[in-house]
Amino acid sequence: MTILCVRFQLPPTDEAALPELLGLLEEFTPVVEALPPDGALADLRGAERYFGRTAVELASVIRVRALARYGVDCVIGAGPGPMLARMVLRDARPGVTCAVSPDAAAEFLAGKPVGALPGVGPATARTLCAYGLDTLGRVAGAPPATLQRLLGARAGRELHEKANGVDRGRVVPNAVSRSLATERPFDRDELDPGRHRRALLSAAEEIGARLRAVDKVCRVLTLTVRYADRSATTRTRTLPEPTAHTPALTRAAYGMYEALGLQRARVRAVVLRAEALGPAEEASHQLTFDPVDERVRRIEEVADRARARFGPRAVIPGALAA
């Protein structure tokens, strides 16, 4: 049992806390894959040897540290591979790590419906159930040739292996870059739209700087506004082109905020999330002859170098959007 699947029980107002919790997992292994908005996979093969403890024992340490440092409990599943760890997580509960050993994997899977297997969608499940293959145990006992005739050569072979507990998946490190989030809470429930917009500007500047620091761009931006009554509104916008340009992110954030048409809303926090990330070198950029835009992009480069050398407070908030 070398793979952990961890789901942090984050309160709604702590959506942006995942990166810090991923850092906690990285104290044990560099092979950590984020599963936004509240989970992660961790490969502990090297950690088991280094610390002289099993993955289940390390899971207990992770839980205690998450509670002590961040006040966040977690649910943990452990298995010999990522697929099994994620399936085991569904049976786990806070305070106890649910684990399945390699020898017990087939037995663990046997009684589960075929649709419980990751990668088996509704259409595939209907096809299998029509032939009486409604549980993973029955799929595991079926001849591989039968599954290949029903689903195709590759899909049938992979399904037969997975149903028998053969997990060839791997944890892909640094997948946290698939999304980035930042939160701006207010000291008190805030009515002033001007302060709402300043919080959005600050969040967009942070998101842009973090994207540029890892040479990424985002295609999708999501805004969540949390209110005093603990309700929330979420809006998502696909950007015209993938970008890490702060003014473009700010315009999108302002546009989503204004579309909400808030009237005297008591806002407790705003959360901005950049999603659908990709390498900056593969992104296209619409050329422009606007000298102001080019000047702002050059200022961004200088500001990023200042942050890298002197820290995030080296740049005055709002300077890039001026």
Explain the layout of strands and helices.
Layout lengths: L2 E6 L9 H8 L6 E4 L3 E5 L1 H7 L3 H16 L3 E6 L2 H8 L8 E2 L5 H6 L11 H9 L5 H6 L2 H8 L1 H11 L15 E12 L2 H21 L2 E12 L4 E12 L2 H15 L6 E13 L11 H20 L12
Parallel strand pairs: 4-5
Antiparallel strand pairs: 1-3, 1-4, 2-3, 6-9, 7-8, 7-9
Fold and architecture overview:
By secondary structure, the protein is an alpha+beta fold. It is 42% helix and 22% strand. It has helices at 18-25, 45-51, 55-70, 82-89, 105-110, 122-130, 136-141, 144-151, 153-163, 193-213, 246-260, 291-310, and strands spanning 3-8, 32-35, 39-43, 74-79, 98-99, 179-190, 216-227, 232-243, 267-279. A five-stranded mixed beta sheet has the order 2-3-1-4-5, sandwiched between helices. It has a four-stranded antiparallel beta sheet with strand order 6-9-7-8, covered by helices on one side. The chain is globular and about 65 Å long.
Rg calc: 23 Å
Please provide the ordered H/E string of secondary-structure elements. Answer: EHEEHHEHEHHHHHEHEEHEH
How much strand?
15-25%
> What structural class should be given to the helix and strand makeup?
alpha+beta
Biggest β-sheet description:
5 strands, mixed
Catalogue the unreliable spans: none
DSSP helical segment count: 12
> Mean pLDDT, nearest integer?
83
Can you list the strand order of the major beta sheet? Answer: 2-3-1-4-5
Shape assignment: globular
Q: How many beta-strand segments?
A: 9
Alpha-carbon distance between the two ends: 53 Å
Helix content: 40-55%
